[in-house]
Amino acid sequence: MQIVFGDLEMQLIDFMSLIHPFLAIVVVFPIIGISTHMAWQTRQRRLQTLEKGSTSRIPPMVGREHLKMGRWLTGTVVGVTLIALAYSIGFKGVFKELSDENMFEAIFIVLIFIGTIASLVFLYRANANQPLWRGVFATLTGAGLVILGAQDGVFRRGYEWHVSHYYYGITSSLLMIFALAIVPDIYKSYKWRMAHTILNCIALLLFIGQGFTGSRDLLEIPLSWQLDHLRKCDWGAQTCPNNSQSRTPEELIIQAMSK
Fold first, then answer.
1. Distance between CA atoms of 71 and 105, rounded to whole angstroms?
2. DSSP, res 2
3. How does pLDDT run across 213-253, given as a tens digit for each residue?
4. Which long-range contacts (CB under 8 A, 24 or more apart) does 32-35 make?
5. Do 123 and 138 meet the contact criterion of CB atoms below 8 Å apart?
6. Number of H helices, E strands in the chain
7. Where are the beta strands (DSSP E) in the chain?
8. What's the pTM value of the predicted model, to 2 decimals?
């Protein structure tokens, strides 16, 4: 199946690979910015109101808005992570060559996806006076992400784990799940509030790292029709075999303008 954008024809696998970065840029990163701004205002208002005889010009509703955006952030981060894992497993993993031999594995993966999504939904619905269930559903959601990330087809960049988009994404997702699970405790304990602040500052740094590593990975992912040629390249020497039938970029531009 081909999808046409002007003069560019893309295979379905190439188009599907754009969904994860598209949603990350259009949905997730704006929410990160809004949530970070609300968090800073909430912190400033709390410090200002603690001073004797002082009031804050920051409206009191900023705390509720920060909570709302934080809940949205957890859902979107976990959502785009699941989309990325589904793409990798679906097009490069067990579903690429589905047969009777790996049918059980495929069914197991589908059940893990369903269980992870259901656990996240139940985590949202857990009441503030149910810490045990909040912990259970948070653990199940995080375990589902880790199990799915360990499947064949997921590029983890283990040889450079310290600059891995996968590890940054999984870690930030786990931090967001933890942040959602401890929301009721933040209002009761100063220690939980400090833990929330520190861990989310770490998550913010990971999100910044994801912006860099994600852009780098997009440069490294070729279109599907380029794979056969790239497999012949010598990556150590950074050279590829010449093809007498290949056309220069200038020739491609002239051809496009002549249409």
1. 32
2. E
3. 999 998 888 878 777 877 788 877 878 887 655 555 555 56
4. 32/73, 32/204, 32/207, 34/69, 35/66, 35/69, 35/70, 35/72, 35/73
5. yes
6. 11, 2
7. 2-5, 8-11
8. 0.85
Helices (H), 93-164: 103-125, 131-149
Gyration radius from the chain CA atoms: 23
3-state secondary structure of 25: helix
pLDDT of 35 strictly over 90: yes
List the one residue out of 94, 100, 108, 104 whose CA is nearest residue 153.
94
What the block records as the tokens of 73 is 């952030």
- Judge whether 240 and 229 are in contact, CB under 8 Å: yes
Residue pair 19/83 in contact by the 8 Å Cβ criterion:
yes
- Comparing CA positions, the residue from 85, 71, 69, 74 lying closest to residue 165 is 85
Tell me how far apart the alpha carbons of residues 258 and 253 are, in angstroms, rounded to a whole number.
9
CB 73 within 8 A of CB 42: no
**Could you tell me where the beta strands, DSSP code E, fall in 24-140?**
none
Estimate the crossing angle of helix 190-220 against helix 165-181, to 10 degrees. 150
Q: Which residue has the tokens 């996968």?
A: 166
In the block, tokens 């290949």 appear at 246
> HSE-up of 184 (CA within 13 Å, CB side)?
14
Give Dmax over CA atoms of the chain in angstroms: 80
Phi and psi angles of residue 239, each rounded to the nearest 5 degrees, phi first:
-135, 150
